[in-house]
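re the bet — no i am not wrong, look at it urself. input seq straight from the record:
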Amino acid sequence: MSTAQKKAICLYFQVHQPFRLRRYRFFEMGHEHYYYDDFMNESILRKIASDCYLPANKIILDLISKHKGKFRVTFSLSGIVIDQFRLYAPEVLASFKELAETGCVEFLAETNSHSLASLMDRERFERQISMHTEKMVEYLGYKPTSVRNTELIYSDEIGSWMADMGYKATVTEGAKHILGWKSPNFLYCNSINPKLKVLLRNYTLSDDIAFRFSNKSWSSYPLTAEKYVSWIKGLGSSSDIVNIFMDYETFGEHQKKETGIFDFLKHLPDVVIKKTPFVFMTVSEIADNYQPVAVLHVPSPISWADEERDLTAWMGNELQTAAVSKLYSLSEQVNRCGSDQLMRDWGYLQSSDHFYYMSTKFFSDGAVHAYFNPYENPYQAFMNYMNVLSDFEIRLKAVAPVNVHDEEVNRLAAAVETKDHLISELQEKLTKFEKKGRIVRTKAVKPKGEKSPAATAKKAVAGKATSKKPIVKKTASRKTTAAKAKK
C-alpha cells in the first residue's frame, strides 16, 4: 500500500502566550511608556514551560526516536511566544529547535503578533506572515511551507492571499455551518485559488482530549489511548485523514499531569501504528500526498473559538470593535514612525488576547475566556487597554504627526526642548566655574541702619570731589608766601 493510499492522522499543536499588560492608570498617560507586567509574564511562562513545554517536547522527541520517524507532528509558534522564550525560557526555544532538526516536525507560518490583521487588510496580514517566517528561520532554522492564521481564522479571501504568498496548505475549523453534510475527514481546497489545500479540524476528537479528558462526569471517562484509537479506527472506512488540532498547553497545563495526560500521549502512537491503517503525517505531507475531494466555500471568516466558530470571541461586542478599530486606525502613522520601540509595542498591542479578555460571553465559553485572564471583568480589560493605546498614540503623534497642526506643535515642542537643554548645559558650566572660584557671587547683608558698601563708596568719591578746592587754595597760598620771602 503506497503512502497516498494510507489513512493519515495529523496532530497539530498551537503554542502562544501574549505579553500581558500591567495596570496602566489614566494619569500615567504622556509620562510612563512601559506597558507590560513583566513579573506576571515571566511567572506564567516559566510555569507553563515547566508543566507543559519541556516535558511534552521531551516525550515527543523520545517518541520520534522510538518509532524511527513514523511519529510526526505539526506546530505553530507565534512570534510573540518566541520573544518570550528568548526572554524568560531559552531552554524551551532550544528544545523546539531540537525537534525541528529531527525532520519529523513541521512548523507553520502565521501572524507574527498573533493578530487580527487578516480582518483589516491584505497588506498588514502579509507583512505579519513575512515577519514571522523570518523569525522562524532565524531562531529555529526552519522555513515554513504551510501557513495558519491566528486562532485558525479563515475565509475564501484569506485563503487566496495565503496561496498567492506561495504556501501549499493551511488549517482551519471543520465548522458545521460551513461543512453541512460534508465530513472534516477529507482534504479540501480554496475556492478562489485551488492551489491552497485546506485541512479541517475534527473538533469532536480534538475536544475529547483538550476539554473532556479529565471530566469525570463525561460518559467516556477515563479516556485511554486504546479507547481513543478505536474511535479513530472506526472512521477508517469513511475518511482519508483525521485532523486533531489543539492548544499545546493541553498537555500538563489545561489537563494536569495528575490526570494521566502525558501517559496518554506516550501510548497514542504505539496503538495507532500497531492497530490501525493510519499513519502520522504533517500538514504539508498531507497536502503533497492527497488530492482535495471538493472546493471549500467559506464566504465569511470562521475560527476554532467557542460554540459559534466565528469572530465573536474578539469582535462580538462594542468594547471589542471600538478597541480593534482604534488600534488599526493608527496603522498609517506606525508605518511612518521609524521607531523600533514603537514598532515593538505596536506588534504586542495587536495580540488577539487583549480583545479576547474584553469578551462578555459568560455562558458556555466563560471558563475558556477566564484562562490566564489578568482582569476581573471585560470592562476593566477595555479601560486598561484603551489607556495604554492612548499613551501609544501620544508617542506616535510626536514622531509621525497626522496633519499640519500636529507638525507645528511638534516643531515648537522640539524647539522648547532644545532651548531647555541648552539652558541646562549653560547652568551646569556656570556651577562648575563657581566651584573653581573663577566667579564669586556674593550678596552683602547689611546690618540694620548701616549703609551698603556701594553707598559708602559713593560718599567717599563725593567727599574727594568737595575737598579739591580747599587744597588748591592752600597750595596757592604757599606759593605767594615763598615769593614774598625772596623779595
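see?? The radius of gyration is 38 Å. told u. also The chain is about 50% helix and 10% strand. so pay up
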